[in-house]
Design a protein that fits this description.
mainly alpha, rod-shaped
Length: 86
């Protein structure tokens, strides 16, 4: 009877350790997911800021410098393509 209780106590202890381990893994998973989300958000935001500047540069030079406007639009097209590939 004592042996059975000791085994049961050991099994309960291992079960508690397993549950604690699973909780630690879940917390670590959540932290990793938040880190990845933050990195993706920051990269996307950076690309969008860069893309937003392109039309403004092109619009500012359309009348006075059509060649510069075409250049800005071509750069914008490349930036959009690069953002899509990333």
């Amino acid at each position: 009877m004592i042996v059975l209780r000791e085994r049961e106590a050991g099994a309960v202890e291992r079960l508690d350790e397993l549950r604690a381990s699973r909780r630690r893994l879940a917390v670590a998973d959540d932290a990793e997911r938040r880190t990845v989300e933050r990195i993706l958000h920051d990269e996307v935001q950076q690309h969008l800021v860069e893309l937003a500047a392109g039309p403004q540069l092109a619009a500012g030079s359309v009348d006075a410098e059509p060649a510069a406007a075409k250049h800005h639009l071509a750069e914008l097209g490349r930036a959009v393509q690069q953002a899509l590939e990333d």
